[in-house]
Amino acid sequence: MRVAIVTESFFPQVNGVTNTVRHTVDRLLQTGHEPVVIAPGPGAASYRNAPVVRVRSMALPRYTSFPIGLPDPVVERTLAQFRPDVVHLASPIALGAVGMRAALKLDLPTVAVYQTDIGGFVRQYGLRAEPAVARWVGRIHRRAGRTLAPSTASLMQLGRMGVPNLHRWGRGVSLDLFGPECRSDELRSHWTRGRDEVVVGYVGRLAAEKQVRRLAALADLPGVRLVVVGDGPERAALGRLLPRARFTGMLSGVDLARAYASLDVFVHTGEAETFCQTVQEAQASGVPVVAPAAGGPIDLVDHGRTGLLYAPGSDADLRQHVAHLVHDPENRRHLGEQGRTAVASRTWPAVVDQLIHEHYAAVRRPGLAAAAA
């Protein structure tokens, strides 16, 4: 099968969209399919054995590290030449809209994957554009052959936009990378400077939409050491707000797995997550999770069994849940073990195989690529 993936983000940018596309391409190649990636540039012209076609882009205002794809004839030209069996639109907003128009013009089947709550994003940046963004996103997805959303909350959100043919498609987690065995006493000692402290950490982008400033509610908890893993436009401001926290910068691979497993409690603060991959990665690492009862975490955390959910917007509730775990190591152990068990079957190969055999198959018209050859 030929699959053209039109994505709003790809390497060298590292985020949830890039990560999902990367794992999708990995599995497509592994199972004998032929993918091509169309992404905003600049960047490498290939990933493994898959070509990456770069299009014109511009920096997003107030978020200059994130390039936005611009209308570019290379998108339609690439689809016309490649003639895919399916066009996979990864988090379509800007470049995805261009890909959708080209696919419809060429009569190519489409699967649109909803992954970013742009409305929540603009709200956190104080922009008065949420209704217009919702109309734009809804229009793109209403034109897709099938829309995949990662959580119950996202399905409901898209349903309110009038998007038809909705299906839930989650995310995998790299169980071969993340695990309790990665825990490092040496790293913990570095963070705590040898003190007997409970390490409470956040992992993710340091940006307004992630609401990392909520960690200030935990900063003065006795016996707690805050650790912040990641980077982004709010790094300097968070450093001033949380002067006693340890900031590691962005980590990946083995270093990231070691950081996760060396936490005693993982806290997520953002309330506009369509899925929340970091929750799964913390659970895979055997670390108890505290997250808001909003968006993706509602599906990932069974309150009291695989983690704890706090009332959205309530710093007091967040503080109470974390304080409870700080003083209850047995419950930390129990929640960590149950969280690990909950994600044991969510491997990336299994998740991408579902995408190929269930969702691609549902929109694909047999013989399309062969007829064009």
From TrEMBL:
<protein>
    <submittedName>
        <fullName>Glycosyltransferase family 1 protein</fullName>
    </submittedName>
</protein>
<feature type="domain" description="Glycosyl transferase family 1">
    <location>
        <begin position="186"/>
        <end position="340"/>
    </location>
</feature>
<dbReference type="InterPro" id="IPR050194">
    <property type="entry name" value="Glycosyltransferase_grp1"/>
</dbReference>
<dbReference type="Pfam" id="PF13439">
    <property type="entry name" value="Glyco_transf_4"/>
</dbReference>
<keyword id="KW-0808">Transferase</keyword>
<dbReference type="InterPro" id="IPR001296">
    <property type="entry name" value="Glyco_trans_1"/>
</dbReference>
<feature type="domain" description="Glycosyltransferase subfamily 4-like N-terminal">
    <location>
        <begin position="14"/>
        <end position="176"/>
    </location>
</feature>
<dbReference type="InterPro" id="IPR028098">
    <property type="entry name" value="Glyco_trans_4-like_N"/>
</dbReference>
<dbReference type="Pfam" id="PF00534">
    <property type="entry name" value="Glycos_transf_1"/>
</dbReference>
<keyword id="KW-0328">Glycosyltransferase</keyword>
